[in-house]
């Protein structure tokens, strides 16, 4: 049987976790590799997974198909850097067909933009309409030191290409005390001026990176206070089942999001699960619990075992993460890097 052929639906039961939350959003990491080494995300000398452990593009697609039969309406591809995975546009094209047919509401990606100049037009043609781009500074030297391997001009060119291709771009910035905190207001002005939403994120204790993340931790309550002296921020009701709370900045007219996993936890509305590039299903970004989908995926072309594994995972989805700050230290951290689960 051709693995690309849609498998018979064994169940189309929606995925509802023990807390009554319906799962309709899949974040799929397509690679743990990246062309950057951001200081808060990776150590300089990362050991990556052997290529044989990775799911093939066909397997990733089949997995997405199974999740769609179980009620997933939105898929975000992430990584590592999703656009460095060889052949990725083939997967994006095939998944995009489900957006065009109405089976998916949205297909999107989170990217560092390094490859966007090459791919922006193809992404739009495939049916992608919105993307998230991670960028922590607009200063070239600082950019090189945060990302270790990245070059700012390449990323700015990528963002320009995305906007020109008609993609709606949301920028994500990790707030880093003493590194980019004073620059964030001008980044917001720049982003809003170009019609891009902007979201700031608190750094989270995910994986060993050879640095103490607490040294640069900035509670977003502090940043919000600073920003409110400059601008009028009107609370927005927008909630996407995600962890961000949004405001409209009256003076710029743009949307600004705050993701505050450490200082404020928004897990109660969580509608998502994450699958790694090896087929590990993580029920929470901030907990160790996971269920392996690769074995049931490879064991049979029939999706029954896969469906059962998914049921088991959803039945064990935790209420939320345990990140916090106590005695000047980050607590509730886990060993897994963000690049493994997918951001
Ligand atoms: N490479 C792509 C990118 O950078 O957009 C996608 C993967 S990256 C892991 C996804 C997001 O996770 C990025 O916005 C990055 O800033 C964020 N991230 C990585 N490690 C983090 C950490 N320890 N705390 C908070 N955010 C983190
Ligand atoms: Fe790569 Fe994204 Fe992690 Fe930076 S944040 S090292 S771009 S995966």
Number of structural units classed as domains:
1
| Proper CATH architecture | Alpha-Beta Barrel
Number of strands: 16
Helix-strand pattern, N to C?
A: EEEHEHEHEHHEHEHEEEEEEHHEEH
Helix content: 25-40%
Number of helices: 10
What ligand molecules are bound, each kind once? S-adenosylmethionine, iron/sulfur cluster
Please write the CATH class name.
Alpha Beta
Q: What does the average pLDDT come to?
A: 90
Strand content: 15-25%
Describe this structure in words.
The protein has one domain: Alpha-Beta Barrel (TIM Barrel), CATH 3.20.20.70. The protein is of the alpha/beta class. The model is unreliable at 6-10 (pLDDT under 50). The strands form 3 sheets. The protein has a 12-stranded mixed sheet with strand order 9-10-11-8-7-6-5-4-3-12-13-14. Helix 2 packs parallel to helix 3 and helix 3 runs parallel beside helix 5. 42% of the residues are buried. Strand 3 (25-29), helix 1 and strand 4 form a beta-alpha-beta unit. The chain has helices spanning 57-69, 88-100, 116-126, 140-147, 152-164, 184-193, 220-230, 294-299, 304-315, 338-341; strands at 15-16, 22-23, 25-29, 74-78, 106-111, 130-134, 168-174, 197-201, 233-235, 244-249, 255-259, 272-275, 280-282, 290-292, 324-326, 329-331. It is globular, with a radius of gyration of 19 Å. It is built from 10 helices and 16 strands. Bound molecules: S-adenosylmethionine and iron/sulfur cluster. Iron/sulfur cluster is lined by residues 34, 36-38, 41-42, 79-81, 112, 134, 339.
């Amino acid at each position: 049987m051709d693995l690309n052929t849609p498998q018979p639906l064994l169940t189309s039961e929606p995925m509802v976790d023990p807390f009554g939350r319906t799962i309709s959003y899949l974040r799929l990491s397509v690679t743990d590799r990246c062309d950057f080494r951001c200081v808060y995300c990776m150590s300089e000398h990362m050991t990556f997974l052997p290529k044989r452990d990775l799911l093939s593009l066909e397997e990733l697609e089949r997995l997405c198909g199974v999740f769609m039969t179980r009620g997933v309406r939105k898929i975000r591809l992430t990584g590592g850097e999703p656009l460095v995975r060889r052949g990725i546009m083939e997967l994006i094209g095939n998944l995009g067909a489900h957006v065009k047919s109405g089976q998916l509401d949205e297909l999107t990606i989170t990217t560092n933009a390094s490859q966007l100049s090459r791919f922006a037009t193809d992404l739009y043609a495939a049916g992608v309409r919105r993307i998230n781009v991670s960028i922590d500074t607009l200063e070239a030297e600082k950019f090189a030191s945060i990302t270790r391997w990245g070059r700012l001009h390449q990323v700015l060119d990528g963002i320009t290409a995305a906007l020109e291709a008609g993609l709606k771009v949301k920028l994500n910035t990790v707030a880093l005390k003493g590194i980019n905190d004073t620059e964030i207001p001008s980044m917001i002005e720049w982003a809003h001026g170009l019609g891009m939403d902007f979201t700031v994120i608190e750094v989270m204790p995910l994986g060993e990176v050879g640095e103490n993340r607490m040294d640069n931790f900035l509670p977003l309550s502090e940043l919000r206070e600073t920003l409110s002296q400059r601008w009028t921020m009107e609370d927005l009701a927008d909630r996407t089942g995600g962890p961000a709370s949004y405001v409209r900045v009256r003076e710029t007219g743009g949307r600004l999001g705050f993701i505050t996993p450490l200082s404020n936890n928004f897990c109660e509305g969580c509608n998502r699960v994450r699958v790694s590039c090896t087929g590990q299903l993580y029920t929470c970004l901030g907990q160790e619990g996971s269920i392996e989908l690769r074995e049931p995926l490879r064991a049979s072309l029939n999706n029954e075992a896969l469906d059962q594994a998914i049921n088991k995972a959803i039945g064990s989805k935790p209420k939320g993460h345990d990140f916090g700050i106590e005695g000047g230290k980050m607590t509730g951290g886990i060993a897994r890097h963000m690049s493994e689960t997918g951001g």
